[in-house]
Structure formats: C-alpha cells, structure tokens
Specification:
Length: 280
C-alpha cells in the first residue's frame, strides 16, 4: 500500500511521479508554443486529448504528463523538436513557472465533482497502482478531505481559477462537451488557432465519441508509458460509463448534503464552480 503513493507539497502522488522529478519541475524550460492540457483526474482528460490530437493531425507530440516519470523526464521533453502538447494534473501553484512567464496556452477541463468522485471511486477499485479502498462512504470522505491522488478537487480548481482571466487559458466543462461537442471543438480549434472545416469538426466528433474511443482502445495494445494521465496503467479502465449525473446512483441524500456543505464552503467565491451543471 504505502509504496504506491507518497506525499509531496502536502499532495498525494503515485510513485509513478518520482519525488526527484517533482523537485526538479521548477527548473523546466517551457517553450512559447507548448500547449498544456490540464485537469483533475477523471474530468475528461482522455477525451480532450483525443480531440486535440485530431485537430492537429500529425504535426505535434502528445507527451505523457510532465509529472509522470523520474528525473530524466524533463530532459526527454527537451529533446522533442516538434510542438508539444503536455498533459498535467498538477496544481496551478506547482506548475513550472516558465509556463506562466512564456504565457503558454493552457486548456483546463472541469467536471461536476460529484461525478468525478464516483468515477474515481470505481477507478481506485480497478487500478492496481492505487491503494485499496474499502467502501464508497469511506472513499467519499477521503475525496472531500482531499486525501486522494492529486489532492483536493476543490484546491485544484481554485489554484487554476486564479488564471481564469488570462487570455491564454481556456476553461472547458465536461458537461458542455456532452451537450454540444461540435460547439466545444470549434471553440478549442479557435483557441489553438487551428484551421478546421464544418465537416472536419463533424468527423472529429465522431472519432472522439465514447463508443468509438472505447472500442478502439479495446482493440489496440497501448504502451503503458504513453499515457495522458499519471494514474492510468491500463487505458481500458478509462471508458467506464461516460455519462453526466451517475452520482445520483451512488449518493444517499445525506451524502449529497455533506458534499454540498463542503462544496459551498470551499467554493463560495469561485466563479468557475458557479458554472458547473448540477442536474439535481
Ligand atoms: P466515468 O468513469 O464517469 O465513465 P479522464 O480521462 O480524465 O481520466 O476521465 C475519465 C472519465 O471520462 C470517465 O468517466 C470516462 O468514461 C469519461 N470519458 C472518456 N472518454 C469519453 C468520451 N469520449 N465521451 C464521454 N466521456 C468520456
């Protein structure tokens, strides 16, 4: 158990992020044309990565998360000569400062935290790289306290929200992608400055549908070192349900009240949280 996770800066990381790498992040040299794909786990990282890669066709490299690996990681990233799309689950305050200095583009994807808690609970149970969980009520408590990998959802959102008005930061909602994927794809392509046609957008939406991605993943053999999420040892575990509102099948009304109490306390001044869809 204990050798699966460790704590750095008060945040839980899996051992797939070495402390030496985390320590060396401050020395990373970002490039002006880097694009960050930022998320708290289970927010739709794989979905967004798929869309971005279709938008760029083949001109770019989708790297594994900047915090994934050992101390040699930063050097590996340095060696890439093409434009880099860099995923990360890092808290905004832990991001290498040159990303801010060079005003790199960053897309932050957010999802209703109740659905994230449910998604993460199932993921913890299936994923051999994560500590054992005894029950849903216990996990929910851990989630609310921020005692899960990548730390508190609330703190993660708040740390990135500080940059909400930066012109190089785009906030996207998982729920909006479910409601109007073509609209979101258009929005992303405009933000990235990539040319697309209506039919191109339609094609991307088809290729990045839940069923399409799930089927393709089951067919392919994926390299476990090529991951967009630090927690992912097996990509097949990602495509569970892909729905909005699955929390209603898991939360008791008491758990819902408890969740909302923490949410309202933590997110009282959050503009980003106000836009979250709560289909109660
Ligand atoms: P569920 O566990 O609720 O099904 P991440 O990629 O950040 O780890 O997020 C994983 C969640 O996104 C999972 O949620 C997964 O099913 C969902 N997801 C992945 N691809 C999707 C897609 N193409 N459409 C809708 N949801 C998707």
């Amino acid at each position: 158990e204990d050798d699966l996770v460790h704590t750095f800066n008060g945040i839980t990381f899996t051992t797939r992020s070495s402390p030496e790498l985390l320590n060396s992040l401050v020395t990373f040299d970002a490039r002006e044309d880097d694009v960050l794909l930022v998320s708290y786990p289970k927010s739709g990282t794989h979905w967004l990565a798929e869309i971005i890669m279709h938008l760029y066709a083949s001109e770019v490299a989708l790297t594994s998360p900047i915090e994934f690996g050992d101390v040699s990681k930063l050097e590996q990233l340095n060696c890439l000569s093409c434009k880099r799309i860099i995923p990360t689950h890092l808290d905004g305050d832990m991001l290498p400062p040159t990303f801010w200095l060079k005003q790199c583009k960053a897309i932050y994807i957010i999802r209703n935290p109740k659905d994230i808690a449910v998604s993460m609970y199932h993921y913890y149970r299936e994923n051999p790289n994560l500590p054992t969980i005894d029950s849903w009520p216990h996990f929910l408590q851990m989630f609310l306290q921020g005692n899960v990998v990548c730390g508190s959802w609330f703190d993660h959102v708040l740390s990135w929200e500080k940059h909400r008005s930066d012109k190089n930061t785009l906030f996207l909602y998982y729920e909006d992608m479910q409601k109007d994927l073509p609209g979101v794809v258009k929005n992303v392509s405009a933000f990235l400055g990539v040319n697309t046609t209506e039919s191109g957008i339609g094609e991307i939406c088809e290729k990045s549908s839940f069923n399409e991605m799930k089927t393709n993943t089951e067919k392919e053999n994926h390299d476990p070192n090529h991951t967009v999420c630090v927690l992912t040892s097996n990509r097949k575990l990602i495509f569970r349900k892909g729905a909005v509102g699955d929390w209603k099948n898991h939360f008791t009304s008491k758990q819902n009240r408890m969740f909302e109490e923490t949410f309202n306390k933590k997110m009282a001044f959050s503009e980003v949280a106000k836009h979250l869809v709560y289909e109660c």
